[in-house]
Amino acid sequence: MKIAIYPGSFDPITNGHLDIIERASVIFDKLIVSVAANAEKGSPLFTREERENMIKETVAHLPCVEVDSFSGLMVDHAIHHGAVAAIRGLRALSDFEFEFKMALMNRSLKEEISTLFLMPHAKYTHVSSSMVREAASLGGAVTEYVPAHVDSALKEKYSHG
C-alpha cells in the first residue's frame, strides 16, 4: 500500500487544497491530510480540532483520505504512518524556492520520504488560506475559494453572517 502525507496548516482548508487532495488520492492508496502545529505562521484563526473537523467534512467523499495532526518533524510523522511521500502544492513560481529548500531538507533528514509537488487547478493558483482569512475578515465574499461549511465557519468567526 502506497501512503502519502499532505501536511499543512489548513487555516482554513481551501478549494485549492481540496483540488490537491483529490489529485493525490488517485495516485496513492491512502492519503493522510495532516494539520501541522506551525509556530512560524503565528496564531491560527481556527483551533487544531476545528481545522481537522473542517477537513474531515471536506474530504468525506474520498474514502482513502484520513485526517490527523502532528507537531515536530513532518518526516518523522510520515515514517510513523508508513508513508513514502509528502505532497506539497505549488501555486506559483514564488512558492517553488521555499518548497524546494524544504524538500531538500526533508530528504536530508529522511531520504526514504520523497516530496511530490502537485499544482492545483489554474483557478486556484492565486488562493491561499491567508488571503482567504484576510478577505473574510474584511467582509469579502470567499464562497468560490472555500467549501460552503468553511465559508460559514469564517463568517461565524468574523461575525459577517
Keywords for this entry:
41% helix; alpha/beta; 6 helices; five-stranded parallel sheet; Rossmann fold; single chain; 161 residues
**Gap from first CA to last CA:** 44 Å
Which structural class best describes the helix and strand composition?
alpha/beta
Helix content: 40-55%
Number of domains: 1
Instruction: Tell me the CATH topology.
Output: Rossmann fold
Mean pLDDT: 94
CATH class assignment: Alpha Beta
Q: Sheet with the most strands?
A: 5 strands, parallel
Q: Architecture, according to CATH?
A: 3-Layer(aba) Sandwich
Give the C-alpha Rg.
Answer: 15 Å
Q: Overview of this structure, please?
A:
This protein is α/β, with parallel strands linked by helices. The chain has a single domain (3-125), classed as 3-Layer(aba) Sandwich (Rossmann fold), CATH 3.40.50.620. Helices cover 41% and strands 18% of the residues. The chain has a five-stranded parallel sheet, sandwiched between helices. The mean pLDDT is 94.
Topology:
Blueprint: E1 3-8, H1 15-25, E2 30-36, H2 48-58, E3 65-70, H3 74-80, E4 85-89, H4 93-109, E5 114-118, H5 129-137, H6 148-158
Parallel strand pairs: 1-2, 1-4, 2-3, 4-5
In brief:
The protein is of the alpha/beta class.
